Amino acid sequence: MIKKGFKYRLAALLLAAVVFLPLPSAMAEPLSVNPLIDPPVITEYTETEDDFFNILLLGVDYGFSGYWGSGKKTKLENCHTDAVMVLSVNLDRQKINLVSIPRDTFTYIPTVRLEEKANPFTLPQNQPAPSPAVHGIYKLNAAINCADTTEQGIKNTCAAVSWLLGGIEIDRYIAVDMNAMIALGDAMGGVDFDVDMSYSGHSGTYYHAGMQHLDGQGIMDYVRARRNATVDANDVGRTGRQRRMIAAILQKLLGNIMLINNVYNVMENGSINIFKNVDQNNFFELAGAINQWSGSSLSADDLFASYVLTGSYQWGMTKWLFTFTDQQNRLDVLKTVYGIDADPLPFVSKEYADWLLKSDQSYTLEDGMMNARYIRVAQQILDYAHSLPFLAADQQSAVDALTTAWDAAAAAFTQASSTLSKADTQVMQAAVQALVPVAEAAAATVEYPRKIQWDTALGWWMDPVLYDYIINWE
What we know:
Blueprint: H1 13-18, E1 27-28, E2 41-44, E3 52-60, E4 81-90, E5 95-100, E6 106-109, E7 111-112, E8 134-139, H2 150-164, E9 172-177, H3 178-187, E10 191-195, E11 199-200, E12 206-207, E13 210-214, H4 216-224, H5 235-253, H6 257-267, E14 274-276, H7 280-294, H8 300-303, E15 304-308, E16 311-316, E17 320-325, H9 327-338, H10 350-356, H11 368-387, H12 393-419, H13 422-445
Parallel strand pairs: 2-7, 3-9, 5-15
Antiparallel strand pairs: 1-2, 3-4, 4-5, 6-8, 9-14, 10-13, 11-12, 16-17
């Protein structure tokens, strides 16, 4: 029987499987302000009755000449995580669950602010510190791009996934690019796999349906297949294929220490892009634990299960296709896998997105996004005032007046964006318009050094007032 204390020394066979994907339990604070204005903050972990070990698996769509990912991006820092899965090990029930989250999921990027690191396994000393708040709405696959380093971007992705999973802690992560996946597939000698379709892979190789042996390139072609797929040619279909491939890889690696060692040696090869916070001891201890389970009377169905946070795939904000999470499906998955009763996610619906922006030709005060922009501009003036070492009496009075007006506008925005009602939206617009002269008066009094720009000709996804990071969305 695996003891709970073992969790903090674990991490192996499942981590081996992670590498075959193309590249905290922290509940967010109650949202008193809409996350466009004040992003979610993770302050504590959601407790579960069973003991879990959760590994975030990320596949980054960085390849090589002739085999680039979506958008033909040729720099790693511009590439997204087009595979996002949580490998969740229930240590008490000896169960392994794969939870896939669509790459286009409409989300925010929370801040991680834990008062104390009760579990040093989660944030090792040699890992970058949590990033500050990231303003803006993003697709989940772009969280990795909202940072100054890839490692910090992966931390952002961990935080976003934790928020989406109702505050479940992410213990470890592994992220690989397409080059690494091919190398790791070859290191384990490929895998025998029952391919569910005949199709041409991105490499140009044609694959027939049925049982066959796939090398590293074959594994990569299969888990990457989406538009070129002849069965379920969409993101949901691709995540299903990724889950089936991971299960097949796990089955091959179980009990084969030589293959596990080959895989780990390639993971340690500094010439390919693998980002991880797991060491060799973790890797092999978890391998031993899973081998013990598989040697018992458990069947494959008893040992493995897979789920996906489904949602509707629709145009949102007029410009991009998003996956809008199915709230009931999400609650059911979290209850089944983790035994928790989570709350529905706020501010992520298609209706909310339509309220934020009605037309890409009319980015005006009729749109929620522009009202959010006004509130953020006023916030910047407040931030500058608060940075001053001293405020004279007239300055303090002006700042106090701006604080009051800002609070009223932010509260009205949050209320309107929650109800989406016409009446609340009108109240919000009035509060935002009332904020403008108060902010301008405060800016003049404290000698705000920047030109105040309430409006912009930029598209919302390129607006530096609303977005801390301007990224390539392709």
